Amino acid sequence: MYQKRIFNPQSKTPFEISRSGIELFFECPRCFYLKTKLGISHPSFPAFTLNNAVDILLKKEFDIHRADGKTHPLMKTYNINAVPFKHAKMGEWRNNFKGLRAYHKSTNFVIFGAVDDIWLVPGKTLKVVDYKATSINGKINLDDRYKVAFKRQMEIYQWLLRRQEDLKKEGYQVSNEGFFVYANARKDEKAFDKKLEFNVEIISYLGDDSWVEGKIIEAHNCLMDDEIPKPALECEYCNYRKAALKYEE
Known about the structure:
The protein is of the alpha/beta class and about 250 residues long. About 35% of the residues lie in helices and about 20% in strands.
């Protein structure tokens, strides 16, 4: 429940803020403040191990084509003229404890996030790719309420990728278009039979990372304030605490 690394307004050492930390600030400034400055996190919950397994296997599959410098058959199906990006730092950028990193000077923050994949299209253009796993009936779309967070996730990765100095020097550009590779587990099979069958599709998304800079500054201002901010109106955690406290008192 408690994290060791907390924000100290007096410290001159750059402070790390993860992509998920920025998302938490989006969801509820109070929860962000409690966790990042006071070290009080949300209650933990079990990891999505099946989703993680799909993520790992998709990475292995695309890595085969990355090593060969060839287009994945799924890309051909969706007429995407690209290959998985082959770069010495790919493993680092995917690592949850390292990831893509960018120093934000005015706040003294280091923003970071682990990307799932990057695809290279002709003309030295890079496109961010995110793997997702689910199991729903019908066609997958990006219009659901909770998928707004997925879009922001994509845009932060684009923002981070654009700030990799070595890529700039090598002449790479980052496209506003990114892709979600969605693995949808089928529930219409006759039996489980020790395996899950998936329909896999690629969904294009046109990102806009213009909000990221301002949100980083807002998050910094929040942490520099001595007062705990008001909770978001729809924050489930804060509303639970408020309702429970009412009866406890």
